[in-house]
Design a protein that fits this description.
single chain, binds pyridoxal-5'-phosphate, globular, seven-stranded mixed β-sheet, alpha/beta, four-stranded antiparallel β-sheet
């Protein structure tokens, strides 16, 4: 690394990125390129000789950015947000600069220790039970994604129960969740060798805004136990992907615990809101939980990737995931004096991700982070009010956080027709490039999702987005 070249190029790159943010509203939010567009624009082979940074940046501007969907655009309302911030960016930059690989404590003690401290800070901000703190038997770890988080805890839970009932019983193990649970749990089961027929996606209750009813869980567990199966893992969600439904942790947790199941909570998106006292009640009952996950890279101003996972019993993870080859042995690890995060995750290598979360927590402070969340929720409320005032539309589920689920009402009451109408509305709106929204299916109905959460979004963007939606809806309705 030539430090003078870093200084020169680094400044140029920061200028380029700052200009990108200045101009971000001029790009179509959803990239409008066709599949394979880039192969036509770039050479077939790598250059034999070095090129200039200016040439590369020109290609980024002309060839790469048209193929980017601008998640940081203030007009981005699709899926869930994936925040960036100056603090998060600086943390990423520092991590790239130091570029260590912190799999064991010894490979960079600061990386492990900062991660433990920062996750303790965040656990306290969320008022998680003390058992999740690194000072006891549990602790937090940064995974790349919520998908990795649920996989590692599923493996820990599986091995826990197999130690008790014997390895041959693997085909009897049953996993429970609602049909609103993120598909990452299904993938974890596939990887974890859970028999596909023993993955129970229980029907969420449309009358309680798609939360899972404790009775439904209880009945399924009793039925499976009566047939000799072994319930061992239950995942509840706070803020489901489709509609931000909130599963009732307290009642569900009692069932999970009385049946000796590992209880995991996926709060990937909505966990961030729980740092605000007025939203903390959504995770009441977290005392019963074995593992809890939230994505700081979604709605917590921390650049991707940074998924915070806490467990009450770290030994369960370690028993499933540890290896101890000669070439990694060292005094601190052998003496059990330290945490080696390689034993809490799938890969060996790991980045210094705690730096960016630390920077976010320090450069904002909890009060500003709370204000940030509240502002988005207020903006979502505004959008909800605008939709509610227009009789051509309906709000589909009760808004809890910063996602509004809505749909355009058809002129004739026919579900196929309504679904096609909303599908077409989504397509035309997104192809304007002026905003980007996504969709879901709830009870077989095609629903539009408007998720507020990009850091640059202001009231004027909500109003402009709603105007595009109204105009395109009017045009569509006149054609149908
Ligand atoms: N859980 C929920 C509730 C989500 O909404 C998502 C993604 O949006 C995930 C899990 C998966 O997140 P990741 O991409 O971090 O694996």
């Amino acid at each position: 690394m030539d430090s003078e070249q870093l200084r020169e190029y680094g400044h140029k790159m920061v200028d380029f990125i700052a200009d990108y943010y200045n101009n971000i509203e001029n790009f179509p939010v959803l990239s409008q390129v066709q599949p394979g567009y880039l192969r036509k624009l770039l050479p077939d082979t790598a250059p034999a000789h070095s090129e200039t940074l200016e040439d590369v940046l020109e290609d980024v501007q002309k060839k790469i950015l048209p193929g980017v969907t601008h998640w940081q655009s203030p007009d981005y309302f699709a899926y869930f947000p994936s925040n960036s911030s100056v603090a998060g960016f600086l943390g990423e930059m520092l991590s790239a600069g130091i570029n260590m690989v912190g799999f064991s404590w010894i490979t960079s003690p600061a990386a492990t220790e900062l991660e433990m401290i920062v996750l303790d800070w965040l656990a306290k901000a969320l008022k998680l039970p003390d058992e999740f703190l690194s000072t006891g038997q549990g602790g937090g770890v940064i995974q790349g994604t919520a998908s990795e988080a649920v996989l590692v805890v599923l493996l820990a839970a599986r091995d826990n129960v197999l130690r008790r009932v014997g390895k041959d019983a693997i085909d009897k193990l049953v996993v429970y969740c609602s049909d609103q649970t993120h598909c990452s749990l299904q993938k974890a089961c596939q990887i974890g060798g859970i028999h596909p027929e023993n993955f129970r996606m229980l029907k969420a209750d449309p009358s309680s805004d798609y939360a899972l009813s404790p009775d439904t869980l209880s009945e399924a567990v009793s039925h499976d136990m009566a047939t000799g199966l072994i319930p061992f893992f239950f995942c509840a969600t706070i803020g489901t992907t489709s509609s931000t439904a909130v599963d009732p942790l307290l009642a569900l947790g009692k069932i999970a615990k009385s049946n000796n199941m590992w209880f995991h909570v996926d709060a990937a998106y909505a966990g961030s809101a729980c740092i605000c006292p007025e939203y903390r009640h959504y995770i009441n009952g977290v005392e019963e939980v074995d593992s809890f996950n939230m994505n700081a890279h979604k709605w917590f101003l921390t650049n991707f990737d940074c998924s915070a996972l806490w467990v009450k019993d770290r030994s369960a993870l370690i028993q499933s995931l540890s290896t101890n080859p000669e070439y990694l042995k060292n005094k601190a690890s052998q003496g059990n004096l330290v945490v080696d995060y390689k034993d809490w995750q799938i890969p060996l290598g790991r980045r210094f991700r705690s730096l960016k979360l630390w920077m976010v927590l320090r450069l904002y402070g909890l009060e500003k982070l709370q204000a940030y969340i509240r502002n988005h929720i207020e903006l979502a409320k505004l959008f909800e009010e605008l939709v509610a005032q227009d009789q051509r539309f309906e709000i589909v589920t009760t808004r809890k956080f910063s996602l509004v689920c809505f749909r355009l009402l058809p002129l004739q009451s026919n579900e196929d027709y309504a679904n096609k109408l909303n599908h077409d509305l989504l397509d035309v709106v997104n192809s304007t490039g002026k905003l980007f929204i996504s969709h879901t299916l709830l009870s077989d109905r095609y629903i539009l999702r408007f998720a507020v959460g990009a850091p640059l979004t202001e009231e004027k963007h909500i109003i402009a987005a709603w105007k595009v939606l109204q105009d395109e809806a009017a045009t569509l309705l006149s054609k149908y």
